[in-house]
Amino acid sequence: MLRVEGLRAWYGEATVLRDVALTVAPGEVVTLVGRNGAGKSTLLRCVMGLHPGQRGSVTLDGRDLGPLPAHRRARLGLGWVPDDRGAYASLTVTENLTLPPAVGPDPWPLAKVYEAFPVLHERRAAAATQLSGGEQQMLALARVLRMGARVLLCDEPTEGLSPLLVGQVADILRQVRDQGTAVLLVEQNLRFATGVADRHHLLAEGRVVETLRNDEVREREGELLAYLGI
Ligand SMILES: Nc1ncnc2c1ncn2[C@@H]1O[C@H](COP(=O)(O)OP(=O)(O)OP(=O)(O)O)[C@@H](O)[C@H]1O
């Protein structure tokens, strides 16, 4: 269980997260929804140990992650899927999947990755730069699973993807969730979010102002989209 309590974060003089609390259990998908600048990416970076200006508590299965740098958190099973997707551009798909060491507790064998992501198997000899946006997103997700993550921290995985590829990312997230992986997801696409997630935290000015179930998001979709400016 990933647990965040009393989290505060800042850049210089500016506080961007205030007293944030949330949990993500194994097999659960939780989204962070909010306007641009609400603090969603900073929250993911705090959990991964990538943001120095933070106070409060982040624990995984009761273990305090506070003193641990990002690479030690990766060893415990946290997997960061950045919004810039982070593949090695000049390497092939297979190289991107096999060169990073397995650091987390539950690394996927290459065959399992290719079974879950057939599009990557088809494109296995292509350089990462030759992949479409959707394929790059698949590769970013596949890399963290291959490296052994059991908690995925995904920053806007559907951004810029066609509806077809959004559907494929949803399938994969449901599949990893069903295998017991926990997913904390920054997401602005509410239809996608309600299709994969269990709960949604609405972040405003650095605070969780509401926690919504899927049916509540669906009922209030128009209002929420207007609020988010989408
Ligand atoms: N490197 C930085 N230095 C100073 N302020 C920053 C930095 N990165 C983000 N911020 C500020 O912190 C606040 C939260 O940013 P953050 O990126 O976490 O928001 P977000 O909800 O993820 O929005 P977006 O979707 O636009 O990335 C914003 O006001 C932003 O301007």
Describe this structure in words.
The chain is an alpha/beta fold and 230 residues long. The chain has helices at residues 40-48, 70-76, 93-98, 110-116, 118-122, 133-146, 163-178, 190-196, 214-219, 221-228, and strands at 2-11, 14-24, 29-34, 54-60, 63-64, 78-81, 151-155, 182-186, 199-204, 207-213. It has a 6-stranded mixed beta sheet, with helices on both faces. The chain contains 10 helices and 10 strands. It has one domain: Rossmann fold (3-Layer(aba) Sandwich), CATH 3.40.50. The model has no long low-confidence stretch (mean pLDDT 92). 43% of the residues are buried. The structure holds adenosine-5'-triphosphate. The site of adenosine-5'-triphosphate has 10 residues, from helix 1. Keywords: Amino-acid transport, ATP-binding, Nucleotide-binding, Transport. It holds the Pfam family ABC_tran. InterPro entries: AAA+_ATPase, ABC_transporter-like_ATP-bd, ABC_transporter-like_CS, BCAA_Transport_ATP-bd_LivF, P-loop_NTPase. Residues 2-230 form the ABC transporter domain. Belongs to the ABC transporter superfamily.
